[in-house]
């Protein structure tokens, strides 16, 4: 039975979903890093919000962990690279809290424009400071949105409802999408110089870290107001404080901080700063949405291999997962076969999908095939990182798909090129949905692969098989299945032999020394 740890506050709906699906759940909120490291090895899944830091140290000891689910959007509290390295799927819930967060940004903008928090405090204190809190109208003001993705787009829509002019800087925003959203796409410098208010909605990346710094603040209009409901690291807090102190920045509304939980911060108690404690996603609706989504996604992954909203894996829908399952095995076997048979560095990999399989989602098949191919070369490779590892090693990977059926109604063919040779192998699924190898190096064969295989290439000469059988039998090695194929009579031949256990190196050498044997390899599946 799969076991999941929930380590941040999540709606109880999540626990119910896991339990309803037969997944054991532990809720342990507020664990210290050491405590998390001590127990994480027991779990197949970890569900978090932003408080738990899923660091490389945590990942390193998470022996059974298969999936980390982020009930929310930003995954900057998860070391995705380390997770990828260990084959752990990282998924988030990209839409569940976007409306809520966008609404918070609008609320912060209004609070900032009309000094609502400050006025609230002094009114409660019995002061009646009407003239102190003169604000600005938002009507006809220019809002500059940095990062116009899901949340930025919703903010743009709501701001247009307030009759604001919206300009956006987002290198990945297409001109067509900008037109659809009714925003003007501009470069960063133009946004800085034109906006009356700026709202940040990018993820925290190496490109966006510190994007609001002294130099960029200087490019802003005097009296600029800043709203940050994305990530604290986007703003250099010292630079913002200096600009607030000088009056160049008229106000800032901050939901997020460089260090969180932020119990102490240089911007606290500044008269023109409005703060909330990372409340962007904190509505009943959003928390229910993300908890349900994360629990459903993680359950489907753990129980059926369906991959939804993964940061580091190709998607597999719930419907696709059972259809892909036998093909995943076939693709992995083809990769593992060649990965063990091939010795030289690989230059090129061509994966051909023919017939029925060509109509399926082949990305996960390619990923698992590459895992099989590269695993004999490096232990650390997995389905999640295999495409990246192949790229890093300059292995050119291409996929070819054809719906047309050949001899088989469905076929995957793998061709691997090295400096020395080109090797190809093909496999299919029969009606029993079990994978069969049907071609190696252009020679037809029909073999199901067992855990221990002998792969022999030889000359098609009388007596060879008898000698091989005797050698294995004399050494107590039982043959489970024996498949043969040859190009032409007396020409190149291959044998795929399933044996009941590993073959000792000494016996393998004797097989290799048999007359007419060109090559013999022990393969493990
Ligand atoms: N305060 C809170 O509680 C919450 C905060 N967030 C934060 O909001 C961020 C945005 O969320 P979504 O809109 O859903 O993400 P998204 O991925 O839909 O949009 C992010 C946008 O930023 C753009 N972008 C990336 N690099 C950029 C750069 N260098 N300059 C300008 N734009 C860049 C992307 O092209 C994309 O359009 C999340 O990454 C998260 O950190 C999200 C939810 C709640
Ligand atoms: O879980 C939360 O409260 C924070 C949400 C958030 O920051 C996100 O989804 O990126």
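-> sequence recovered:
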């Amino acid at each position: 039975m799969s076991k999941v740890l929930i380590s941040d506050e999540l709606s109880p709906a999540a626990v119910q979903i896991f339990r309803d699906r037969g997944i054991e759940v532990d809720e342990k909120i507020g664990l210290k890093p050491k405590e998390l490291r001590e127990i994480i090895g027991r779990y197949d899944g970890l569900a978090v919000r932003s408080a738990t830091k899923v660091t490389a140290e945590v990942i390193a000891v998470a022996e059974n962990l298969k999936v980390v689910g982020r009930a929310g959007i930003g995954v900057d509290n998860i070391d995705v690279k380390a997770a990828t390295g260990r084959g752990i799927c990282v998924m988030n819930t990209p839409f569940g809290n976007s409306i809520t967060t966008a609404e918070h940004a609008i609320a912060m903008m209004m609070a900032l424009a009309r000094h609502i928090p400050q006025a609230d405090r002094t009114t409660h204190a019995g002061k009646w400071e009407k003239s102190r809190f003169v604000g600005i109208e938002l009507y006809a003001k220019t809002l500059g949105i940095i990062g116009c993705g899901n949340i930025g787009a919703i903010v743009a829509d709501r701001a247009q409802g307030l009759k604001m002019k919206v300009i956006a800087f987002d290198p990945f925003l297409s001109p067509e999408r900008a037109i659809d959203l009714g925003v003007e796409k501009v470069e960063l410098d133009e946004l800085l110089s034109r906006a009356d208010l700026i709202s940040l909605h990018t993820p925290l990346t190496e490109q966006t870290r510190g994007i609001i710094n002294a130099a960029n603040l200087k490019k802003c209009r005097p009296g600029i107001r800043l709203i940050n409901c994305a990530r604290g690291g986007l703003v250099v807090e010292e630079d913002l404080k200096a600009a607030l102190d000088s009056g160049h920045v008229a106000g800032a509304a901050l939901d997020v901080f460089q260090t969180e939980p932020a119990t102490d911060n240089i911007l606290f108690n500044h008269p023109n700063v409005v703060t909330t404690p990372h409340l962007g996603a904190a509505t009943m609706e959003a928390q229910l949405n993300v908890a349900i989504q994360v629990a459903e996604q993680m359950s489907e992954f753990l129980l059926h291999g369906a991959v939804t909203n993964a940061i580091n894996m190709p998607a597999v829908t719930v419907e696709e997962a059972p259809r892909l399952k036998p093909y995943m095995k076939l693709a992995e076997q083809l990769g593992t076969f060649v990965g063990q048979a091939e010795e030289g560095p690989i230059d090129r990999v061509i994966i051909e999908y023919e017939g029925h399989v060509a109509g399926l989602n082949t990305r996960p098949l390619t990923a698992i095939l590459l895992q099989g191919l590269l695993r004999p070369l490096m232990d650390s490779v997995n389905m999640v990182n295999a495409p990246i590892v192949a790229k890093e090693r300059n292995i050119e990977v291409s996929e070819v798909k054809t719906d047309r059926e050949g001899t088989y109604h469905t076929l995957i063919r793998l061709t691997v090129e090295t400096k020395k040779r080109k090797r190809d192998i093909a496999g299919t699924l029969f009606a029993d949905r079990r994978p069969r190898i049907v071609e190696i190096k252009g020679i037809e064969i029909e073999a199901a692969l067992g855990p221990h295989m002998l792969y022999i290439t030889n000359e098609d000469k009388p007596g060879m098989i008898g000698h091989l059988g005797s050698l294995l039998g004399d050494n107590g090695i039982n043959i489970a299945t024996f498949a043969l194929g040859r190009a032409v009579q007396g020409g190149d031949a291959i044998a795929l032999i399933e044996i009941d256990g590993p073959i000792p190196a000494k016996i393998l050498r004797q097989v290799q020394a048999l007359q007419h044997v060109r090559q013999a390899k022990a393969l493990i599946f």
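DSSP finds 17 helices and 22 strands in the chain.
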